[in-house]
Design brief:
The chain has about 775 residues and is an alpha+beta fold. It has helices spanning about 5-10, 15-30, 50-60, 80-95, 105-110, 140-155, 170-200, 205-230, 240-265, 270-300, 305-340, 345-350, 355, 360-370, 370-385, 410-420, 445-455, 475-485, 485-495, 495-500, 520-535, 550-585, 590-615, 635-665, 670-695, 705-735; strands at about 70-75, 100-105, 120-130, 160-165, 430-435, 460-465, 510-515, 545-550, 745, 765.
Amino acid sequence: MITPPGRLIVKFRALILFAWAIAAVVSWPRAARVQEGLRVEGQRLRPSDSQLATDLIVQAFPQPVGDFFAITVSGPVPIDSLRTRRVIESISEAAGQLPYITRVVSYLTVRDSTLVSDDRLVTFVLATVEPRDGFSPTNIVAEFRDAIHSTVAQVPGSDDYEVLVTGRPALDYDVRTVSKDDARSGERKALPFSAMVLVLAFGALVAAVLPLVVGVLAIVCSLAVIELISGIYPTSVFVLTIVSMVGLAVGIDYSLLIVTRFREELNRGRGRQDAAIRSVVTAGRAVVTSGLTVAVGFASLLVTPITETRSVGMGGLVVVTVAVLLSVTALPAALSYMGRLVDVPRALARKLAWYHAPTSWERWARWLVYHPWRAIAAGGIAVALITWPLAQIKIGLPRSGWFPSNTESSDGVETLQRMGAGGTLQPVRIVVRVPEGHRVVGSRYIRSLMRLSDSVRADPRVAQVRSVVDIQPGMSALGYTMFYGNIEAARSRSPEFFSAYLSSDNRSTLIDVILSDTTSFTSSMDVVRRLRTLHSDIAGLDSAEVLIGGFAAASVDLQDDLLQQFPLVIGLVLVSTVVMLAVAFRSVLVPLKAVLMNCFSVLGAFGVTVLVFQQGVGSGLFGLDGPTEAVYVVVPVLVFAVVFGLSMDYGVFLLARIKEAFDRSGRNDQATIEGLTATASVITSAAAIMVIVFGVFSFSRVLAAQMMGFGLAVAVVLDATLIRMVLAPAIMHIAGRWNWWPGVKKIPVPVGGDARTSGEARLEP
């Protein structure tokens, strides 16, 4: 294992503490504004079908309908009344005056029945945002909302109207805002509960405060680094959640291990400086090894093809590095000054001494030594039952709950869905481009476009199709051929429509597929897959390029790419972890066993996640209205990468203590008992803190964050109980001396030695 230089850390403790104090002061203002540079919308790092479609729409069409705001208006009187007309006209005028709005459409201007509800009390206005390089519509949501709401407030009688701004930019903005608020709220909720566990674990208030300080400092310093990174590399807003969760969890866990070992050394009669040095050499070595295993998981995410997962990888690497550095430098430096002050108040420690009493843990450890096969059988059955739901996992967009609840944009979506127009926000977009020298609305392609439109419309999941061959319902192929015989005359009749649906060179056309409101996000991905094979069966389109874009199509491409990269992520994590642990513990079997145990934790976490979220068992506890029917593809990738490293924490803590005892005694059974007894309360406390931190985020308003927090919490529970307290020590006992092969050699058992339980000889490094 890598051993931090304990003597140097204690020697230069004043300088180290001063440097970290300066870092905290400098980091605080940067951490406070980190969300300003983060992205909500994902960015693909390699081309995809959906991205090519989006790029072609922006480049080929004079006024493409790309990003837009949908302003819903719900009033007490019908849209035909003068009062409602004034509200709608004021909204249209205010939006049209904004420099980034290119087009405003309302029922009053186009008389489209899809823009108004059946009872004519609800309508919505569409405001198209001008596409520009380097410009994100998400950044102008607050300004746009202020302009709309302030204008409506000046209209007499507008108090009776509910006006909501939604649309993709508004939804993205609210996701960013909610992610930031949930991260801060999660920290505030987790800290007091974590403090209670720390007080119980240490029996001293001073000792309990130190890990909390380290956890908070790890978050602040890491967010400052992320703020710098976001200025030069696109970084997703999801990094806020991961830094808050992981920073608080590992910051507290690592410092818990250091402080616990420091107090042990003080109780053995060492002075405060010697105790600090010894803590760095022993517990600090385990912290560094553990931190490296966690870092491996996060580093594996850097090979994924999207900014969301890469951002989580970068954020995890940063926060784990900072937490490790704080735990092995600043914390020992502070402890070397504090000495016995860390035990204040001592009366509390005496009252809570029962928590650390090794008797019960030692009895359990000895039972495992005498009954290892029973423990393995019981543990194996439990793992199999927990993992079983994983066989029914479905990867995809969830049925519901995707948008954060209780936000203006999600309330606007609900309003649109009530009037049957929810599908207008996320249409599936088909772009058809014909070879140079041809017209897409020429006689050669008109019939093909009509067949394509009819085939799409025949799908019961499709509510409406908008295209150049649907502008006049009922018109024949011959009629459209004649209509587009004079293309300029046709454009002049509906200039706004053709600017959005027919390219300037007449080679490209756009078909918008509006899905019915009964079609879930999960089903919309199936629609995209059907459309991508449908056009190949349409005669005449074999010479044309057909691309499918839109939110659902981008989600399909994201899923396919991530699932393609997932085996590489798994391979990198497994191989790197095995090699690292083999070097650290000079063993072949120990790292292989540790990796296998971690796989059990991950698979069990996936199984429970499928049971609760996809199948809906107990989903109401997390604010969901039923099963999601699918698990978002990012969640398994992130949970695997994060959990594999974090759950290895307890494995490293346990193995390091067993190895320390084994190097001293040469008896594997005795070392296993001693290691389990010495670390059980620490692992239990550390796991409880992680479960609290991750569990808080299970109640986030962002579904992806909920799934990830829940998966991490379940994995930690499984790992700290079933894996580390049952299966791992039982297997360690059965393996005997082979645990440490080839790092030790066999020598005779000393006189009086006891190798009865396993028949092993004494081993010496």
